[in-house]
Write a structure and sequence with these properties.
Chain A is α+β, with helices and mostly antiparallel strands. Helices cover about 25% and strands about 40% of the residues of chain A. Chain A has seven helices and 20 strands. Chain B has about 190 residues and is mainly alpha-helical. Chain B has a domain of about 90 residues. Classes of the chains: A alpha+beta (about 350), B mainly alpha (about 190). Chain A: It comes from Actinoallomurus spadix.
C-alpha cells in the first residue's frame, strides 16, 4: 500500500514539476512577480530627468569612463550641446580613444534614451521591476547641488547611482556598479551650463554625421516570424535582462539588432545568418567559455563575437562582466555535427510551438 | 505489522511479492522475532518441496486420462448458478497446474495484490511511451535542424553596431581604442 502511495507521490511530484517548468518557459522573466519597493519620488525625479534633457538648453563636457575585467580604464571626453526642438550635438574628443568624431541626434527621434538623457517609461519600468529605486541624500556635481538616487539590488547593495540637478532636473552623473561596489561605467558632466548655444547647429556647423537608429522596428509578429524561420530571438536573458527593442536596418535586412536591459545594464545582440570569418576577429582575445570559442574585447564596452548553429552573434554591452558572461552563455553555441543539428532543430520546434517567446 | 507478527505478509515475503519498503520492514521484524523467523523457514521449506513436486513428470497413465478429458466433442460442464451474495466459484485448475492446487489459499488483501501484479506492465508501458516520445522528438528535431544550404562568411561590422547600440541605449557612441589603453584605478 505504501509502495503505491510512494509511486503516486512521485507521479504527482513529476506532474507538478512539469507544469512549473511549462509555466517558466511560457512566462519568461519571473522577477516581475517579486517587485522591489521603490520610492515614488525617486522614480518621479528619474522620469523628470528625461523631460528636462529634452526641454532644457544646455552645453557642457561629459566625462565617460569604463573599466574592463582586468581593471583597465578607458576614458572619453565629449562636448555636448543641446537645443530644445532641434537635437543634441556630441563631439568626442580624442583622448585614450583612437579617434574623435561628432554626431548629431535629432530631438524628434523615437528611440529609447539612456546615459545622462534620463529614463523612458519602458526603461524606468524595467529599473523599478528589478531594483529598489530610492533617494540617497544630497551630492555635488560640477559645483551644482544634486539629489542622489540609488538603484539597489535585493541584497541592499547599490547597482546604480544617479545625480539629478536640483535646479534644472537634468541628470549630471550616472554610475553603474558591480556587486563589489566598484564602478563599471561612469558618465558625468565636468562642466555644464544651462544656456542656449549661440548658433543653430545644422546651419552653422561643419559637416556632421546625423545619426538615427535603424528604422525597421520589429514588432511581436515580426519576431514570431523570425523565430518560426529559426532565428534565435530570445525574449529574455539571465540577470533579468528583458528584450525591450528589436530592429533591422530595413525590412528583411541581414542583421537583427536585439536590445536587452534590466533598467541599468544595456546589452545589444546583433544576429546575422552565416559563419564567422576568422580573419575579422584576429585582433580579439580568443577564449573558451564552457567548451565554446568566444572572441572578446572589453575596452570602451564589453564586446563578444561568436558563431553557433548557423548564426553569428555580436554582443555589445554596458554592463558588469558577470552579466555579460551569463548573457553569452544563454545564447546558442555549437556549430555543426549531429548534436548541433539536433539543437538547431529543437530550437525551431520550440519556436513553432511558441513563437511569442 | 498487525498483532505484533508478520502474519499474512509472511507468505508474500516468501513468494517475493513484497515491495522494497515492505520487504525491508519484514526483514527488520524477522531479525527480532524468532517465532516469525521459524514460520518463514517452514514456509520456505514447504515452497522448496512444492517446487520439487512440480519438476516431477506425471505418470503415463495420468497423462492419458488427462488428455481424454480434453477430447473435442465432450459436453461442457453445466454452469453453476450463483446465489445472491455468493462468492465467485474458484477457477478450475488447468491440467498440470499442480502448484495451483497445492498452494495455500491467498488471504492477502486483494487490491494490493492486484496493484503489485499491474505495476510491472504499467512500467513497461511508461518506458515504451517515453522511448517512443524521445525517438519522435529526436527525429523531428533532426529533420527540422537541417541546414538550408551553404552559409555566407560573415564579418561583423562592429563599429556600425556600436553606433546603433549607442543610439538605442542613449549613450555616446565611442570607437574602440587600440589595446594600449591607460591603466586606471577604480574611483
Amino acid at each position: 500500500m505504501s509502495g503505491r502511495t510512494s509511486h503516486q507521490s512521485w507521479l504527482a511530484g513529476g506532474l507538478a514539476t512539469a507544469l512549473l517548468m511549462l509555466w517558466f518557459v511560457t512566462t519568461g522573466d519571473t522577477a516581475s512577480g517579486a517587485r522591489l519597493r521603490s520610492d515614488p519620488e525617486a522614480l518621479r525625479l528619474l522620469r523628470g530627468a528625461e523631460g528636462a534633457a529634452r526641454d532644457t538648453a544646455y552645453e557642457g563636457v561629459q566625462y565617460i569612463t569604463s573599466w574592463s575585467r582586468s581593471g583597465m580604464s578607458t576614458t572619453s571626453l565629449v562636448n555636448v550641446a543641446h537645443v530644445p526642438g532641434q537635437g543634441t550635438r556630441m563631439r568626442v574628443q580624442s583622448t585614450t580613444a583612437e579617434q574623435g568624431g561628432q554626431m548629431f541626434e535629432a530631438d524628434d527621434s523615437q528611440q529609447a534614451r539612456g546615459g545622462l538623457t534620463g529614463y523612458t517609461p519602458t526603461m524606468l519600468d524595467l529599473l523599478a521591476r528589478n531594483y529598489a529605486v530610492v533617494q540617497a541624500g544630497e551630492g555635488q556635481v560640477c559645483g551644482r547641488t544634486t539629489t542622489i538616487i540609488e538603484a539597489r539590488r535585493a541584497d541592499g547593495t547599490a547597482a546604480g547611482r544617479f545625480h539629478i540637478d536640483r535646479s534644472t532636473g537634468l541628470m549630471l552623473r550616472r554610475e553603474l556598479l558591480d556587486q563589489q561596489g566598484r564602478a563599471v561605467n561612469l558618465t558625468f558632466f565636468t562642466e555644464m551650463r544651462p544656456s542656449a548655444p549661440k548658433t543653430m547647429f545644422v546651419a552653422a556647423s561643419a559637416p556632421q554625421t546625423v545619426e538615427a537608429p535603424w528604422t525597421h522596428r520589429l514588432a511581436g509578429a515580426d519576431l514570431g516570424a523570425l523565430r518560426y524561420r529559426g532565428w534565435p530571438v530570445q525574449s529574455a536573458l539571465p540577470g533579468h535582462l528583458s528584450l525591450y527593442d528589436a530592429r533591422q536596418q530595413d525590412a528583411g535586412g541581414p542583421v537583427v539588432h536585439l536590445s536587452y536591459s534590466d533598467g541599468l545594464s544595456v546589452v545589444s545582440v546583433f544576429v546575422q545568418r552565416g559563419v564567422l570569418d576568422p580573419s575579422s576577429v584576429r585582433s580579439w582575445h580568443k577564449t573558451t567559455r564552457g567548451g565554446r570559442t568566444v572572441y572578446l574585447r572589453d575596452t570602451v564596452q564589453q564586446r563578444a563575437v561568436w558563431a553557433g548553429r548557423g548564426y553569428v552573434y555580436t554582443l555589445l554591452a554596458d554592463a558588469p562582466p558577470p552579466v555579460v558572461d551569463q548573457a553569452v552563455a544563454a545564447l546558442p553555441h555549437g556549430d555543426t555535427g549531429f548534436w548541433g543539428r539536433i539543437g538547431r532543430g529543437l530550437d525551431r520546434l520550440t519556436s513553432w510551438a511558441n513563437p511569442f517567446d | 505489522m498487525s498483532g505484533g507478527h508478520l502474519g499474512e505478509r509472511l507468505t508474500a515475503l516468501v513468494d517475493g511479492e513484497l515491495g522494497h519498503h515492505e520487504r525491508e520492514k519484514a526483514h527488520r521484524h524477522l531479525a527480532a522475532c524468532a517465532e516469525c523467523r521459524a514460520e518463514a523457514e517452514a514456509l520456505r521449506c514447504l515452497k522448496k518441496r512444492l517446487r520439487a513436486l512440480n519438476d516431477t513428470m506425471p505418470s503415463e497413465g495420468l497423462l492419458r486420462r488427462l488428455e481424454a478429458m480434453g477430447e473435442p466433442g465432450d459436453p461442457l460442464p453445466p454452469p453453476v448458478p450463483r446465489l445472491p451474495g455468493q462468492a465467485r466459484p474458484p477457477a478450475v485448475a488447468r491440467p498440470g497446474d499442480v502448484a495451483a492446487r497445492t498452494r495455500p489459499s491467498d488471504n492477502r488483501p486483494r487490491r494490493a495484490a492486484a496493484a503489485r501484479r499491474r505495476l510491472p506492465r504499467g512500467r513497461y508501458l511508461i518506458a515504451g511511451a517515453a522511448t517512443l516520445a524521445v525517438l519522435g522528438v529526436g527525429s523531428a528535431a533532426f529533420a527540422a535542424g537541417a541546414d538550408p544550404g551553404s552559409l555566407p562568411r560573415v564579418t561583423p561590422s562592429v563599429e556600425q553596431f556600436a553606433v546603433e547600440h549607442a543610439l538605442t541605449s542613449g549613450d555616446v557612441p565611442l570607437t574602440d581604442p587600440r589595446p594600449e589603453v591607460t591603466a586606471g584605478d577604480h574611483p
